[in-house]
Design goal:
The complex is a heterodimer of chains A (249) and B (222). Chain A has 249 residues and is of the alpha+beta class. Chain A has 8 helices and 7 strands, in the order ββαβββββααααααα. In chain A, α5 crosses α8 and α6 crosses α8. The radius of gyration of chain A is 20 Å and the shape is elongated. Chain B has one domain: 3 helical TM bundles of succinate and fumarate reductases. Chain B has 222 residues and is mostly helical. The longest helix of chain B has 31 residues. The chains are: A alpha+beta (249), B mainly alpha (222). The interface between A and B is large, with 48 and 42 residues. The complex binds protoporphyrin IX containing FE, iron/sulfur cluster and FE2/S2 (inorganic) cluster. The site of iron/sulfur cluster (SF4) has 15 residues of chain A, from α4 and α5.
Chain lengths: 249, 222
């Protein structure tokens, strides 16, 4: 199929960008969206132009790097997938496809479609871990009894790949779903209890410091999340947060 | 961190608590309004009690006013802050694919409610304060019902009231369940709660409208 692409081109973080139109021909419907982008880039390189910069790594929906806002949706039109899992059969011959980077103050554009998501790293560093003694006397995690339901819910939360689609889709550019997933995956497990209060307070403080917006429960995040992280996690984060506030000095 | 009650979550929880208070108040206000249809005498005596009871006048009423003012100021503040969290907007954004219009436009439904509140204060609250504290008129336990009915004789006013309540319905259809989610309530009862929210969000404004229309259609005969 033949397509018109309107892609956000921006040379660097401090320069103005704009949408630029390109035509690509003979795109197979079996290609992934990223493979289609590869075709475009090859075309650009062959004609001596600068290829479009975009993040990608695993190309199988687990690394979370392939951030693209496609035709007004995070990761494009299908639900529950990343851009690398989006197939060209979702589009029709002759379509015009608009591709933009994630838009959030906390995710500044680095170049073209690449944004800086280190704000997520800093939120994780603020509390998204457990401190364990690794000097050889670590307790075997399997020896700690955990109710099946909690183990399942913690695992669901832990499937968050930090892609940032929740922020990109949210009208408030709120990182609540991401932070909630990261808080929940520990809050549900015995190992997470020791640092639970500091964790939620520090991670929320960091989320605010990074300039993400606040949650108005529109549900856009969960609807666009490639891992279907549930809004229940945000409710849990809020409970954790209120409890932590009530008991810490 | 020093004042971190006022983080995004802290502010949202306060927003939800003021929302709960306002939703409770609406229920109470509606109950009294219904009396105006069922029994003018009962409406008069309850209104008189509410109007002159010192606890209600000097303790609950200030709390209510504070809650309203707090709720809309915080609502505007959060909206502004949230807008700043995305400085460059998308060229194409299909928000309707992932969220409802009402959930994305709470500040606009809220603005209509605010405009209504201004009209409502001018209609009832200011004359009431004037009567009681400025003119210091004598207590009259029978004036409320006819004052109310007379205020609803203008079709424009009834229309404005009805329109405002449609926006209140929009606000509540998202706000009811949103407030529960904000305070951390999301479990197996949530689907039921959402249904309850839909009933509350439609029924409460609809009854307010019906009462206004009823008084418009049934003017005083004496
Ligand atoms: C009788 C009047 C009102 C009632 C019963 C009411 C109720 C509610 C409720 C229950 C919520 C959800 C709270 C949460 O999830 O945290 C809410 C949110 C909100 N309200 Fe109101 N409200 C009223 C008036 C207003 C007014 C006058 C404004 C003026 C702008 C306003 C603006 C907002 C905004 C911006 C939100 C945040 C949206 C969200 O978090 O979902 N509200 N309201
Ligand atoms: S919650 Fe979902 S959308 Fe948000 S970062 Fe994690 S996987 Fe991506
Ligand atoms: S490239 Fe890894 S999730 Fe898409």
């Amino acid at each position: 199929m033949n397509l018109t692409l309107k892609i956000w081109r921006q040379k660097g973080s401090n320069v103005k960008g704009k949408l630029v139109a390109y035509n690509v021909a003979d795109i197979s419907e079996h290609m992934s969206f990223l493979e289609m982008m590869d075709v475009l880039n090859e075309q650009l390189v062959n004609s001596g132009e600068e290829p479009v910069a975009f993040d990608h790594d695993c190309r199988e929906g687990i690394c979370g790097s392939c951030s693209m806002y496609i035709n007004g949706r995070a990761h494009g039109p299908d639900g529950g997938i990343t851009t690398c899992q989006l197939h060209m059969r979702t589009f029709k011959d002759g379509d015009t496809i608009i591709v933009e980077p994630w838009r959030a103050k906390a995710f500044p554009v680095v170049k073209d479609l690449v944004v800086d998501r280190s704000a997520f790293d800093r939120i994780q560093q603020a509390g998204g871990y457990i401190s364990v003694n690794t000097s050889g006397n670590t307790q075997d995690a399997n020896a700690i009894p955990i109710p099946k339901l909690n183990a399942d819910l913690a695992m669901d939360a832990a499937t968050c790949i930090g892609c940032g689609a929740c922020v990109a889709a949210c009208k408030n550019a709120s990182a609540s779903l991401f932070v909630a997933a990261k808080v929940s995956q520990y809050a549900l497990l015995p190992q997470g209890q020791v640092e639970a209060n500091d964790r939620v307070i520090n991670m929320v403080d960091q989320m605010d410091a990074e300039g993400f917006g606040s949650c108005t429960n529109t549900g856009a995040c969960s609807a666009e999340c490639p891992k279907d992280i549930s809004l229940e996690n945000i409710a849990r984060m809020n409970r954790e947060y209120m409890r932590a506030k009530a008991v810490t000095k | 961190m020093a004042n971190s009650t006022f983080t995004t979550i802290g502010r949202k929880v306060l927003m939800a608590l003021s929302g709960f208070f306002l939703m409770f108040f609406l229920l109470q206000h509606l109950t009294i309004n219904m009396l105006s249809v069922i029994s003018p005498d009962m409406f008069n005596s309850v209104s008189h009690f509410f109007g002159y009871n010192p606890v209600i006048q000097f303790a609950l009423q200030p709390v209510l006013i504070f809650a309203v003012v707090f709720h809309f100021i915080m609502g505007f503040y959060l909206e502004l802050k949230n807008n700043k969290a995305r400085e460059v907007k998308y060229a194409a954004n299909s928000a309707s694919e992932n969220s409802s219009w009402i959930s994305r436009n709470m500040v606009y439904s809220g603005l209509v409610i605010l405009a209504f509140l201004a009209l409502h204060f001018a209609d009832f609250w200011i004359p009431e304060m004037e009567y009681k504290y400025v003119a210091a008129e004598a207590q009259d336990a029978t004036r409320y019902h006819h004052e109310l009915v007379e205020k609803f004789q203008s079709p424009v006013k009834v229309g404005l009231y009805a329109l405002s309540f449609v926006f209140l319905a929009l606000h509540l259809l998202h706000g009811f369940q949103s407030a529960f989610q904000t305070v951390g309530f999301n479990n197996k009862y949530t689907p039921l709660l959402k249904k309850l929210g839909n009933i509350y969000g439609v029924a409460i404004p609809a009854l307010f409208i019906l009462i206004a229309v009823y008084h418009y259609l049934n003017p005083l005969t004496h």
